[in-house]
Protein backbone atom coordinates (compact mmCIF):
# COMPACT_ATOMS: atom_id res chain seq x y z
CA UNK A 1 0.00 0.00 0.00
CA UNK A 2 1.43 3.37 -0.95
CA UNK A 3 2.16 5.67 1.97
CA UNK A 4 2.18 2.80 4.48
CA UNK A 5 5.21 2.93 6.77
CA UNK A 6 7.71 0.11 6.35
CA UNK A 7 9.20 -1.47 9.47
CA UNK A 8 12.75 -2.55 10.18
CA UNK A 9 14.23 -4.27 13.22
CA UNK A 10 17.53 -3.45 14.90
CA UNK A 11 18.69 -6.33 17.11
CA UNK A 12 20.82 -5.27 20.03
CA UNK A 13 19.23 -1.90 19.48
CA UNK A 14 20.42 -0.38 22.75
CA UNK A 15 24.09 -1.14 22.15
CA UNK A 16 26.56 1.63 21.31
CA UNK A 17 26.71 1.24 17.52
CA UNK A 18 23.07 0.18 17.24
CA UNK A 19 21.86 3.35 19.00
CA UNK A 20 23.46 5.40 16.25
CA UNK A 21 21.92 3.19 13.57
CA UNK A 22 18.48 3.53 15.18
CA UNK A 23 18.74 7.33 15.16
CA UNK A 24 19.97 7.34 11.56
CA UNK A 25 17.05 5.14 10.47
CA UNK A 26 14.51 7.32 12.28
CA UNK A 27 16.07 10.47 10.82
CA UNK A 28 15.94 9.01 7.29
CA UNK A 29 12.17 8.58 7.51
CA UNK A 30 12.37 5.48 5.33
CA UNK A 31 11.39 3.04 8.09
CA UNK A 32 9.63 2.84 11.38
CA UNK A 33 12.11 1.18 13.73
CA UNK A 34 11.54 -1.73 16.08
CA UNK A 35 14.32 -1.83 18.67
CA UNK A 36 14.92 -5.40 19.87
CA UNK A 37 17.09 -5.91 22.92
CA UNK A 38 17.33 -8.07 26.05
CA UNK A 39 16.00 -5.62 28.64
CA UNK A 40 12.37 -6.02 29.74
CA UNK A 41 11.72 -2.39 28.76
CA UNK A 42 13.58 0.48 27.17
CA UNK A 43 15.34 2.90 29.49
CA UNK A 44 16.20 6.20 27.85
CA UNK A 45 18.87 8.65 28.88
CA UNK A 46 17.39 12.11 29.65
CA UNK A 47 18.78 13.47 26.37
CA UNK A 48 17.14 10.60 24.47
CA UNK A 49 13.76 11.21 26.12
CA UNK A 50 13.67 14.77 24.79
CA UNK A 51 15.36 13.94 21.50
CA UNK A 52 14.61 12.13 18.28
CA UNK A 53 14.26 8.66 19.84
CA UNK A 54 11.86 9.81 22.55
CA UNK A 55 9.71 11.59 19.97
CA UNK A 56 9.72 8.54 17.67
CA UNK A 57 8.68 6.23 20.51
CA UNK A 58 5.84 8.57 21.51
CA UNK A 59 4.61 9.01 17.94
CA UNK A 60 4.75 5.30 17.07
CA UNK A 61 7.58 5.64 14.52
CA UNK A 62 9.68 3.51 16.85
CA UNK A 63 8.85 0.79 19.34
CA UNK A 64 10.73 -1.47 21.71
CA UNK A 65 10.44 -5.24 22.03
CA UNK A 66 12.30 -7.39 24.54
CA UNK A 67 13.87 -10.29 22.65
CA UNK A 68 16.62 -12.87 23.04
CA UNK A 69 17.59 -13.90 19.52
CA UNK A 70 18.22 -17.48 20.66
CA UNK A 71 14.48 -18.11 21.19
CA UNK A 72 12.16 -18.69 18.26
CA UNK A 73 9.00 -17.07 19.67
CA UNK A 74 10.90 -13.92 20.60
CA UNK A 75 12.55 -13.77 17.16
CA UNK A 76 9.22 -14.11 15.39
CA UNK A 77 7.59 -11.45 17.59
CA UNK A 78 10.45 -9.01 17.01
CA UNK A 79 10.38 -9.47 13.24
CA UNK A 80 6.64 -9.58 12.64
CA UNK A 81 5.82 -7.31 9.70
CA UNK A 82 9.41 -6.13 9.22
CA UNK A 83 10.98 -5.85 5.79
CA UNK A 84 14.58 -5.46 6.96
CA UNK A 85 16.56 -6.77 9.94
CA UNK A 86 19.78 -5.07 11.03
CA UNK A 87 21.57 -7.64 13.19
CA UNK A 88 23.63 -5.69 15.73
CA UNK A 89 23.19 -7.90 18.80
CA UNK A 90 26.25 -9.33 20.53
CA UNK A 91 27.23 -9.97 24.14
CA UNK A 92 29.36 -7.37 25.87
CA UNK A 93 32.92 -8.02 24.71
CA UNK A 94 34.20 -7.54 28.26
CA UNK A 95 32.43 -10.76 29.25
CA UNK A 96 35.05 -13.45 28.70
CA UNK A 97 32.67 -16.35 28.10
CA UNK A 98 33.35 -18.28 24.89
CA UNK A 99 30.19 -20.37 25.19
CA UNK A 100 27.98 -17.27 25.52
CA UNK A 101 29.65 -15.53 22.57
CA UNK A 102 29.27 -18.64 20.39
CA UNK A 103 25.66 -19.13 21.47
CA UNK A 104 24.65 -15.57 20.59
CA UNK A 105 26.92 -14.74 17.66
CA UNK A 106 26.93 -18.06 15.81
CA UNK A 107 23.96 -20.15 16.91
CA UNK A 108 21.69 -17.15 17.45
CA UNK A 109 22.39 -15.68 14.03
CA UNK A 110 21.91 -19.09 12.41
CA UNK A 111 18.55 -19.43 14.17
CA UNK A 112 17.44 -16.02 12.88
CA UNK A 113 18.33 -16.89 9.32
CA UNK A 114 16.68 -20.31 9.43
CA UNK A 115 13.53 -19.18 11.24
CA UNK A 116 12.99 -16.24 8.97
CA UNK A 117 13.89 -18.13 5.78
CA UNK A 118 16.62 -15.61 5.01
CA UNK A 119 19.87 -16.05 3.21
CA UNK A 120 23.08 -14.40 4.26
CA UNK A 121 25.16 -12.74 1.56
From TrEMBL:
<dbReference type="InterPro" id="IPR002225">
    <property type="entry name" value="3Beta_OHSteriod_DH/Estase"/>
</dbReference>
<dbReference type="GO" id="GO:0006694">
    <property type="term" value="P:steroid biosynthetic process"/>
</dbReference>
<dbReference type="GO" id="GO:0016616">
    <property type="term" value="F:oxidoreductase activity, acting on the CH-OH group of donors, NAD or NADP as acceptor"/>
</dbReference>
<feature type="domain" description="3-beta hydroxysteroid dehydrogenase/isomerase">
    <location>
        <begin position="9"/>
        <end position="110"/>
    </location>
</feature>
<keyword id="KW-0560">Oxidoreductase</keyword>
<dbReference type="InterPro" id="IPR036291">
    <property type="entry name" value="NAD(P)-bd_dom_sf"/>
</dbReference>
<dbReference type="Pfam" id="PF01073">
    <property type="entry name" value="3Beta_HSD"/>
</dbReference>
<protein>
    <recommendedName>
        <fullName>3-beta hydroxysteroid dehydrogenase/isomerase domain-containing protein</fullName>
    </recommendedName>
</protein>
<keyword id="KW-0521">NADP</keyword>
<dbReference type="InterPro" id="IPR050425">
    <property type="entry name" value="NAD(P)_dehydrat-like"/>
</dbReference>
Amino acid sequence: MEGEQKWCVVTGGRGFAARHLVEMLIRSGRFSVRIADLGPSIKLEPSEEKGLLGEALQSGRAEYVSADLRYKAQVLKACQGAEVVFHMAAPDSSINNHQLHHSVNVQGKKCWLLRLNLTCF
